[in-house]
Predict the structure of Sulfotransferase.
Amino acid sequence: YVKHPSIDGEYPVIGHITQELFNSAVNYKPDPSDLFIASYPKNGTTWLMNIIHLIKTNGVPLGKGQCLDDVIPFLEFEGGEVIKRAQKPRTIKTHLFYDMTPHNPDAKYVFVARNPKDVVVSFYYHTVGFDEHYKFKNGTFDDYFGVFLSGGCDSGDYFKMVPEWFKKSQERKNIHFMLYEDMKKDVRSEILKLAEFLDDSYQQSLLENDEELLNKVIEFSSFKKMQKDSKDGVFCPEIRPADLPFVRKGITGDWKTHLSRDQSERIDQRLAEAGRLYPGFDQLWSEYDGL
Ligand code: A3P
């Protein structure tokens, strides 16, 4: 846990992130050329990182022994000093709340959100497989569900973080808000919209509808390819149990076989509350079955 002036009490972070590392992350001064990939964990961050990496490299995928986290450093994991030393233009991953994230009006921010019911399922399988996630090594899904709703998971409360970023994305041109479900439905048009937002030299060929490049980006970031690559350590350097891979199932609606009716209704209530505070947030998934 760490402290930050924008929140009361403590903020839960991943195991080894000390207060000192956290402070250096939130005090990082972004360069106008920086691109941040922001998200709540398990919302499709790695998929989006890979898409952005493929766009930047004109469709050259990472190979064996290369790790996505090395080319797109994780702000609060590495600390601000490490990011400062990275070559520009930088792409930086973060799971910070909006108010904690280093801002620069000229830097760009892409935020990806996924429906909370699938997030809690995905987060459970992620957490239960890691030693460093304190008591959850052998915890049950029901235990985990309670922690998720109370905002106790690593990176804090989904129902604070995601709606806040959504609201800010409506107010600021330098934030591009994406949905995991939209990517699942039509990744091609989501990639083109993203390229339009990024809009600088290395995206020009995509914007000009270079079908070959677009197809490479889609193919190399497909679930199948990423699942295979993740076994070679491309996406997650941590050692994970074989039955709990990082690139796990990659579907929408997995919650239907995990959440009880009561749990599903409790999330509906939280979404409705969030919608009252952040208009439109509760409607984001209205076209998708079951939310
Ligand atoms: P599941 O656990 O539901 O399978 P993050 O990168 O933010 O931690 O998100 C991880 C989730 O994204 C996992 O969800 C993972 O399987 C999914 N994912 C990773 N790569 C994907 C891809 N290429 N297509 C679809 N989903 C993907």
In short: The pocket of adenosine-3'-5'-diphosphate is lined by residues 39, 41-47, 118, 122, 125, 221-223, 226, 247-250, 254 (CB under 6 Å). The first strand starts at residue 35 and ends at 39. The chain has a mean pLDDT of 90.
